[in-house]
Amino acid sequence: MNSTLTIAIPKGRILTESIQLFSRIGIDLSGMLDDSRKLIFDYPDQLVRALIVRATDVPTYVEHGCADLGIVGKDTLLEQDKDLYEPLDLKFGYCRMVVAEPAGLATGDDPTRWTHVRVATKYPHVAEQHFAAKGVQAEIIKLYGSIELAPLVGLSERIVDLVSTGETLRQNGLCEVETIAEITTRLVVNRASLKTRHQRIRGIIDGLEAILG
After folding, report:
1. What does the sequence similarity comment in the record state about its family (predicted)?
2. From the CA atom positions of the chain, what is the Rg in Å?
3. Rounded (to 5) percent helix, strand, coil in the chain
């Protein structure tokens, strides 16, 4: 049996912080920062292979067994609802998923009285579930970027999006009215890999858990 573990990690801030985290448990993936075009990095001396994948694709690679482990934001996991084992909150990349609306609308608005809303978002599944749970009929408009623009041009009254400081919302005349979820980066594991390579994967989980406190 091939004992090499495959880890899927997205580019950007998550990649840098993941590499720092793995280095603290003796897994050196620093070579991933050296070549911006390479997508597969083999570390045979460590029995590790690392893949650079789009953040939204990490759960798919892990669910289908192309990667044993993955690093991904909780927002992606909530939206996709894949069949994965999620053992660990890695405690970085903190932000919030919120409902926001124009400040002028928010002044006299009461979310508990909403019956119908039109919402623009990158997260239609999460938004639909959130409003359905509140008994609110929601017209969801899927966008891929610049979500804050939608209320400004009349595409929607409200948005569901990620915020960290909220500064982008403020600059566009929007304010938060509800928090749907707090988001951090998570470790996910393929369920079959957890059984067939239990000792190795459990060692990584335990090692990360120990340094994260």
Report:
1. Belongs to the ATP phosphoribosyltransferase family. Short subfamily.
2. 20
3. 40, 30, 30
Q: Where are the alpha helices (DSSP H) in 66-179?
A: 74-80, 103-106, 124-133, 149-152, 167-171
- Which residues of the chain does CATH 3.40.190.10 include? 5-93+184-212, 95-182
**Rounded Cα–Cα distance for residues 70 and 74 (Å):** 12
Report the CATH architecture of 5-93+184-212: 3-Layer(aba) Sandwich (3.40)
Give me the pLDDT at residue 108, please.
Answer: 84
Which parts of the chain sit beneath pLDDT 50?
A: none
Domain 95-182: top CATH class = alpha beta
If 0-12 CB within 10 Å is exposed, 13-18 middle and 19+ buried, where does residue 204 land?
Answer: buried
pLDDT recorded at residue 179: 96
Beta bridge partners of 88: 187
Q: How far apart are CA 159 and CA 213, in angstroms?
A: 35
